[in-house]
Each structure stands twice: as structure tokens, then as C-alpha cells.
Specification:
Four copies of one chain form a homotetramer. By secondary structure, chain A is of the alpha/beta class. Chain A contains ten helices and five strands; from the N terminus they run H-E-H-H-E-H-H-E-H-H-E-H-E-H-H. Chain A has a five-stranded parallel beta sheet, sandwiched between helices. Chain A is globular, with a radius of gyration of 20 Å. The relative contact order of chain A is 0.13. Chains in contact: A-B, A-C, A-D, B-C, B-D, C-D. The interface between A and B is medium-sized, with 17 and 17 residues.
Chain lengths: 224, 224, 224, 224
């Protein structure tokens, strides 16, 4: 009798814990710069993703958290990874960085050298993967939306995107290739070769179409 | 009798002047930076052009003069146009500038803003054309020979080349589109996506193949 | 009789011309950047100078003209010297340039190399002096008002100011040493080592005190 | 009897451990950039310090280790602190960084913003102090040896040196104020206002006098 009770108790607790675990949503942190900081605002790409999850009736399965800070470069992510990411025990981290590493070279004289970009990016992934966290990489989308390769930072953005593709492959991380996707989209939708206004407001930050475009691509990567 | 003599004299003088004019070679000045400075050295593109003219037996018809100074940007050409070009009364001036205007932005913090690049370029052409000098424009070839648009300055070089194309068209100047030609050549001849060694020694300055390549293109423009 | 008339006519004309010459004001052009562009606005340093001349009752003796354009560097002055200065036949030109030549190195990657700064500055003075125009040079005042030599561009501003002092001396031009005067003023009036707010609004552009300070120094140089 | 034996054993072990501790040298790591990388070479400042310790007969009391890598900025130190410093269990770490953080702004477009310089510097000190390691800070000496505050980076170097002084004070770290010491030395020993050749070979890296000068200052700080 006593044993039967004990058995039933354990069974009940196991079921409870299992169902609780089932209920625990997948925690996803978007780790990035001002684009991600705006992502949690009204109409931001993370906000849109939350709405999409709700519509699809799977809102409870995912917890989406924005950890974007304006002006951040790859080494800033490394500096704050403990406090802003690891402390929250995420299941998935989306690294969305690189625009300022390239852009600030001419705008502030404080961009990031390519070899150091790789070094810090690798270090971030290693730290996350060592905790069993799934890492998703993104290439930086655009600094200027001209489609004829004549935006001042196109060459450098392509180069740093190439570095990220290599890193993602090396560490077996899914890749959201925003650079490639934005260029494809603009080739179709920017016939006047405009600098901004297609997916961005100001050559860098996302307008509503851009936020939806990124939300769709991110969603695919996360649901995969 | 007197009239006949007068007539013959005039006829004779006319023939003499005509033949003198025939004998006077077309004076061509190559106005540029270190690439043109090296152009008059052994194996340089201007040296090669002289050899080509000799082989074709038309050496006496053209006087090729190099006026390149290392580190020059468009405004340096404007500053020295009187002394180094106009003082020599050329028939043709080939403007070959733009690499340092783009490159020095990150290497020295002293590149040239796009609007000012256009302003000085226009001013140079106006000054030359006002003296009846034929102007030939060139786009800047390369800063890095990678073929996947991932050389850091590719975007900016493309943009400044676009500015030059517009200017050349506006002022009705023949264009030697080195940027376009170098990219085409590299797409065929640089399968390993190397940074240099195809047409350049160091991503910018011409190797022997590069000097011959430029010499051929310049020759076509001048003989046209 | 005829001779007497002729003599009187000549005398009369001479007096007339002399008095006309007396009446013709000294035309002073201030040739510079955004600081000078703002100088002709309400409360600007040139506006203040005009008010000072009026108060002193010598308004008719000087015609003060602002020829400042925002973002200008030394080579921009050289490019527009014909249209904006020489076309107006000034008696005196005050060259007030240098802030952007230094500042834009890090803010835009398009500052001016020191040797080229000197080259263009010399060329401007030569062109003006060859027309008999009196040239007054100014050193660039400040980019940041901290008094402990810790404004990022202090070293470079000091260096370029040194270049201007040497040039002014070489071409025997009066010098308004704004750099030196601003530093002295701030050492007395900026005990809290503030970045701006003493003579500038934003580290560079003049507040009301700054405009008056510059007006006083310029006035001394012009009346001398 | 048993107790007496036990007592003697403990006494013996205590003496042994005490004498071992006495014998264990103080391990000092110099953590920096190319200046420190050269410091362990022939005539380098760390090499000189070792020789000085030997002459003073206290060679066995200190183990001096160079951990300098060319081109390093503050965030590079943070990235490699685990592997290159903490893994060696040092007693003292001398942080000697800052030249490239300032210099690379114009030479490569990849310097370090002031607020991020502070952020990483703080993080390094916290990490070291949390392990009980004594931290000694250094200000960056010079980029150019002119004595009239006209080296291009003087303002920025002064500013970053000020940041380090504040940090050192906040974390109660001894400070080797190389910036201040080099300026004092040059004011006395560089009457011709030369750019280099007094304490440096090339405006930045130490010549023999410079290495000795730094060795003397470092020695004082370590022996204190």
C-alpha cells in the first residue's frame, strides 16, 4: 500500500514536471545593436514576431527577448554577454551585429578590424555553445540600399558578411543571411537605385517593410 | 606679275605651315597620381605606349608626357594644373585620378567628399576645355582585385566611378572606363579571388600585365 | 584763357576723383567656413562688427562682406576664390579656415593633409597678393573648449595653427591668432574645464560671447 | 608522546610552507601592445628590469613576464585575459595600453571610443582584482615627441590618460604615469621640438633611452 502510494506520487510528479517542461517556452535572445534595440519597440521586428506567434497560436511556446544596444559592435556584445545573455539562461541566441563595426570606420574612426571581428565573434559563439545554447548568426543587412554596389561600405559589408558565413559554417550555426536577402529584395524592389526608403528609413534602420522582412526571415530560422 | 608672285608666296607659305602643322606631334599629358608617376618608369604604361607607337611607326605623331605625382587627389590636380599642364600647351589631357580620394578616407582620414570630388573634377575639365584642349576621363581601376565585391573600397570606388561617368558624359569627354575593364578582366582571370597579383602588385599599383592592359586601353582612346 | 580753363577742369576733376576715392569704403571679405557663414546672421561676428563701426561713426569707411560656406576646407576656398572673392575686387581678405581640415579627418575621413593645407593656403595668399589685396590670416579657434589640452583635436589644431603662423610670417600678413586668444580666454573663464558653452555653443560654433570676442579681435586687425 | 610528534610535524610543515612561500617569486605580468612585445627583446624595458633585479641581487624575488601583442587595444586585452594572464596566476599585472586605441582612429579607422575604452578597462581591472591580483595602471606615453602640444594625437592621448588616471584612482591601483613623465622628460631634453629620437625611434616605440626610462619607472612601482 505504502509503496503503491509512493509509486503514484512519483508518477504524478514526473507527469507534472514533464508537462511543466513542455509548457516552458523556448527563450530566444536577440543580441545586437540599435536595429535590435528598435526591434522591441512598436512595429519593431521582435514585436512583429510576437504578434505572428500569437496569430499562429504558438505564443506560449516562445519567449522573445531583445538585447540590442545602439552603437554596439561585436566586442561590445562580448563585454556584456554574461550580464545580458548568460544570466537569462536562453535556449537560443540570435547574433545580429556588424553594421557599426564597418560603418564607424569612417563615421567615428572606431570600426573593428576584420581579424578582430572574427576573433570576438568566435569567442561569443564558443561561450554560448559551451553552455549548450543554440546560436543563430545573421549577416549585417545594408548601409545604403543602392543596388549597383555603389554604397560606400558595400565592399566592406560584403567582406564582413563573408567572415560571418565562414564562422557560422565552422561552428555549425544556422545563418540568417540578411545581407543576401536585402540585396535580392532591393534588386527587385528598388528600380530607381535609391539610397533608402525601401527596407530602411535612413540607409541602416528598418522601416515597417524592413521590420516585417526581418521578422519573417528570423521566424523561419527559429521555427526550423 | 606682282599679283602672281603674291599668290605664289601665299600658296608656298600655306603649304609650309600645313606641313609644319602635320609635323608637330599631338601632345598628350597624362595627369594623375602615383600610378601615372610610375607610368613613365621602365615598364610603365606610358613607356609601353611610346614603344607601341614606335612599333606602329607613328612615334613622331604623338608626344606622351607623364604628369603624375604620388598621393595626388582631384584637388591636387586642380592646384597644379597651370604649372604642370597648361604651361605645356597640350592637345590632349588624360585625367586619371580617384584612387586616393577614396582610399585615403580610412588610411589617412584625408579622402575627398563626393560632392567636392565632382566640383573639382568639373573645374579641371572646364579649365582645359576653355583652352581648346581635348579631355579624356578615366575611372579609377581598383583598390583590391577580389571579384566578389568584397574589397573594402569597392562600393565607394563604384560610386566615384559613376560620378566620373556622369561628368564625362556631361562634358562630352571620351571615357577610359578602367574600373569596368579591370573588373571584367579579373572576373575571367582571377578565379581564386585574390586581392592582388592579377593586374596589380599591391591591390592598387600596376604590375607588368596591368601596365600593358592600361596602355592598350589608353592607346585606343588616343588613336580614336 | 584756354589754358586756364583746362587747368581748372583738371583741378576740378582731380578734387572730384580724390573725394570719390575718399568716399569709397574699404571692402573687406571674410573668407571661411560655417563660422563665417553664421557671422553675417543675427548676432554673428560680422554683424557685430558692422554695429561697432556704426557706433564709432565710421560705418561708411568699411564694407564688410561674409563669404563663408559650411564645411569648407582650405581647398574649397581655393576653388571658389575667383567667383566669391576676386570678382568683388576687395581691398582686404580675411582668411579664416582650418577647423574642418582637422575635424573632418575623424568625422568624415576627409580632412586635409598638413602639407596640402600649406600648399593651398600659400596659393590663396599668392593669388590675392598678386592683385594687391591685403591678406589677414586667422588661426582656427577651437574644437572643444577644455583647457587641459584634452580635446581630441588639440594637437592637430595646434599644429595647423603653427603652419598658419609660419605662412603669415612668410607672406608678411597680419595674424589674428584666434587659437591663442581662445585658449587664453578659456584658461581664465572655464574653470570647470567644460567642453563648450564658454565661447562656443557646440565646441566649434560661436555663441554670443564668442561672436563678440572674435568681432573685437577682427576689428583691431582691420583698423590697424 | 603522540601529541608531541603531531605538534612537531605541524611545526615542521609550517616552517617548510613558510620558507617555500618566501622562495616563490612575485610573478608580474606586463599586459600590453607592441611596446611591451618589444619589451622582452634585447634592450627592451622588461629585459632591462631583469638585469636591474640581478644587479640588485633580488633576481629570485621577481618573475617578470611580457604579455604584449602588437596592435593590441584595450578590448584585445579583455579578450585574451583568461589565456594570457589568469592562466598564469600572476601576483601583479601591469596594464600598459592605450596608444593604438587613439592612434588607429586615423591610421586604420579602428580606434576605440572613449566610453568603451573606460568600459573595457574597468572590466579588466575587476576581473583581475576579483582573483586577488594587484593591478598597476600606466598611461600611454606618446605618439610624437614634440613638446608644444602639436602632435596630432596629443589631445586624445591626454584625454585617454585622464580616463586611466580616474580609473586607477577609483580602483585604488598604483599608477605609472608615463604620459606625464615622457612630457616632462621631453620638455627638458627635446629643445629642438623633434617628433622622435628622444625616447622613441618612430614617435611611438621606445629607443634605448626610452626603454631604460620606462624600466626605471616600472621598477619603482613594482618595488614599492
Amino acid at each position: 500500500m505504502k509503496n503503491t502510494l509512493k509509486f503514484l506520487s512519483i508518477l504524478f510528479l514526473s507527469i507534472l514536471m514533464f508537462s511543466m517542461k513542455q509548457d516552458k517556452p523556448t527563450k530566444v535572445i536577440f543580441f545586437g545593436d540599435s536595429i535590435t534595440q528598435a526591434g522591441i519597440g512598436p512595429g519593431g521586428y521582435i514585436t512583429k514576431m510576437k504578434e505572428m506567434l500569437e496569430k499562429q497560436g504558438i505564443k506560449s511556446k516562445y519567449q522573445l527577448i531583445g538585447a540590442g544596444i545602439g552603437g554596439n559592435k561585436v566586442y561590445d556584445l562580448f563585454l556584456r554577454i554574461e550580464d545580458d545573455v548568460l544570466a537569462q539562461n536562453p535556449d537560443v541566441v540570435v547574433i545580429y551585429i556588424g553594421v557599426n563595426d564597418v560603418w564607424h570606420k569612417t563615421s567615428h574612426g572606431t570600426g573593428t578590424d576584420a581579424d578582430k571581428f572574427t576573433g570576438f565573434y568566435n569567442a561569443i559563439i564558443k561561450k554560448l555553445q559551451s553552455k549548450g545554447i543554440k546560436v543563430i548568426c545573421c549577416t549585417p543587412a545594408v548601409i545604403g540600399e543602392r543596388t549597383d554596389n555603389s554604397n560606400a561600405q558595400d565592399g566592406d559589408l560584403n567582406y564582413y558578411s563573408g567572415l560571418i558565413r565562414t564562422i557560422a559554417s565552422k561552428y555549425d550555426c544556422p545563418l540568417v543571411d540578411l545581407r543576401k536577402e536585402f540585396i535580392s529584395y532591393n534588386l527587385k524592389n528598388n528600380p530607381q537605385n535609391k539610397e533608402s526608403g525601401i527596407l530602411t528609413t535612413d540607409r541602416v534602420h528598418l522601416n515597417d517593410t524592413g521590420n516585417q522582412f526581418v521578422a519573417d526571415l528570423m521566424m523561419k530560422a527559429i521555427l526550423k
